[in-house]
Amino acid sequence: MSQPEEQQWKLLLLEALVKERREEAQQVIEEVYPYDLANWYGELGKTEQERLLRYLDHERLADVIEELEIDEQLEVIRRLDVDHAGHVMDLMENDDVADILEELPDDEVDRLLSGMRPDEALVVRNLLTYPAETAGRLMTNRFIWVTDESTVGETIEKMRDYIEYSETINYVYVVNQLSQLVGVISYRDLILASNDERIADVMDRKVISVSSETDQEDVAKMFERYDLVSLPVVEGDVLVGLITVDDALDVLREEANEDIEKLSASGKSIDFDTKPWVAATRRLPWLILLLFIGLVSGSIISQFEETLSKVVALAFFMPMIAGMTGNTGTQSLAVVVRGLITREVDKRVVTRLIIRELRVGLIIGVTCGILIAIIAYVWQGDPILGLVVGSSLIITLIFGTLAGTIIPLILHRLNIDPAIASGPLITTLNDILSLLVYFGIATAFISRLM
């Protein structure tokens, strides 16, 4: 749908809701995607939101709720009566229901589950027993499995019976009499096989699976590494669920958002709708800490007050030296954090990365150092000042690049999320380093600068 078409449908829906024209609203609802309805929902007034919820049938409402942000999901579920909410949650993916209910108090969870079908409620309760952000919380029980004794014909017939129930039909998973995962067969291979062949004879016995306790970030990496569209979840060898690629994509988005928040030192999630006071209180702890660390920079300058008073021109280049060092450190930090997310790291990879970044720092440092040395000489007419500024920048850019590389690697080694080595922290530390180097070199050449 193009943007002009989307805007046109949006205006038609708004007009129908305002004028309470149910049939016109439902015509628009049938023409647009649940994702679009979810986006428009937050822009509607309270009255129009309630009318939209009334006009949506159970299946369409379930699809829309799955596209909403968690705060809006909670709001919508609470607006529905128990029976209505139960029917809708029966149609939603079990893991999405579990994510919503996790945010609610126990009594409200019990009340909502009482409105669901007993079999669906049982599955959701089971999902809630798994730790958050694990494979167990991502998995669904809506998939097709057969025993290894089944025939191809029986499997295809089962697929026809459960096609509306299953989240994916790309693969059928095979278990033995003990419900242990023993193989997998693709829809393509089923079509090519003869109906009377046994599944055990045509299935692929090499099955990639994860434990229910596996961290969700590791699950997402497996999808990326092996180009999967679904991933079975086991406890021991027993097949207990399936994770689909859309859930893995959601995990990658969540993890990326978390890393961005940590890199910017903003802590918990802050978006366009976050209240000013909440946003400020989430940012302040880090900023206050960095404020006190930043005072170290002031104390360094005070230690070299005599040098600065004798050669005032040194002050002209202070912001540039500190800023360039912080910038190159932040660039290296971003490269390392992104690499740690997307690939496995061992001693060989770390060594190669550090050597590579050392060379990068050297190239950047020499290039920028020579350039600023020439500028300082032409501007101030003092070759020694140019030497001090240029050599300082070379050294600080090399160390700044290495700091942005090594600090997150050390944190990763200590099993601490490397994204907490945030941009502001690296920048502040590099500011301190750059001032020490700059004024140290200037003090060594003070007699020639005067």
From TrEMBL:
Main location: membrane
Stated family: Belongs to the SLC41A transporter family.
Residue intervals of the CBS domain: 139-202, 203-260
Protein name: Magnesium transporter MgtE
Keywords: CBS domain, Cell membrane, Magnesium, Membrane, Metal-binding, Transmembrane, Transmembrane helix, Transport
GO molecular function, one term: metal ion binding
Subunit-level organization: Homodimer.
Subcellular locations according to the entry: Cell membrane; Membrane
Domain of life: Bacteria
Organism (species): Exiguobacterium sibiricum (strain DSM 17290 / CCUG 55495 / CIP 109462 / JCM 13490 / 255-15)
Physiological role: Acts as a magnesium transporter.
UniProt-listed InterPro entries: CBS_dom, CBS_dom_sf, Mg_transptr_MgtE_intracell_dom, MgtE_N_sf, MgtE_transporter, SLC41_membr_dom, SLC41_membr_dom_sf
Topology versus the membrane: Multi-pass membrane protein
One Pfam family per UniProt: MgtE_N
Record field: transmembrane: 284-304, 316-337, 358-379, 385-411, 432-449
